[in-house]
Amino acid sequence: MNPLVWGLLVSTLSTSTIITMSSHHWLLAWLGLELNTLSILPIIMKPQHPRATEATTKYFLIQTTAAALILFASTLNAWDSGNWNISLSSSTLSNTILLSAILLKLGVAPAHLWYPDIIQGSNMTTALVISTWQKLAPLTLLYLTINHISSTAALLATSISVLVGGWGG
């Protein structure tokens, strides 16, 4: 891969994460998440073998589904409350959809079955980036919205993740 293209992808990856982490508007956060997804796709695809192609396709489909759910939840919230601010969420339905979308983006159980395929289809450096850097933006959104999310739903998701992780290894 051309060093200039590689530098552009890495800088877009870091900038998009910073955009998402510093935003207080849902559309700007969604834009950062989408830029993050689009900048990691060529990096996953770099080895150019069938497993990398499959991993890239799966990653794209899962991440865009989660991003569409986040956009849908933020639109429902804006419709209900009249604002696009992340910290002012009032709708229970939109908060539940948002929690499921963030958990899907993070690869938390039970929505984690795509994650091993992505890691197996990429090289070690890319797997490290996917496992660490790609989780920062969704974790920030979870942190910003945790006060509005149902504690029962968050506890249920945490319990399922612990049980699946403990039993599954």
Automatic annotation (TrEMBL):
Its EC number is 7.1.1.2. It is found in: Mitochondrion inner membrane. GO terms for biological process: mitochondrial electron transport, NADH to ubiquinone. The chain crosses the membrane at residues 26-45, 57-76, 96-115, 136-164. It comes from the Eukaryota. GO terms for cellular component: mitochondrial inner membrane. InterPro entries: Complex_I_Subunit_2, ND/Mrp_TM. GO terms for molecular function: NADH dehydrogenase (ubiquinone) activity. Its main location: mitochondrion. Keywords: Electron transport, Membrane, Mitochondrion, Mitochondrion inner membrane, NAD, Respiratory chain, Translocase, Transmembrane, Transmembrane helix, Transport, Ubiquinone. It catalyses: a ubiquinone + NADH + 5 H(+)(in) = a ubiquinol + NAD(+) + 4 H(+)(out). Pfam families: Proton_antipo_M (PF00361). It is a multi-pass membrane protein. Residues 23-163 form the NADH:quinone oxidoreductase/Mrp antiporter transmembrane domain. Belongs to the complex I subunit 2 family. This is NADH-ubiquinone oxidoreductase chain 2. It comes from Pachydactylus maraisi. The lineage of its organism: Eukaryota, Metazoa, Chordata, Craniata, Vertebrata.
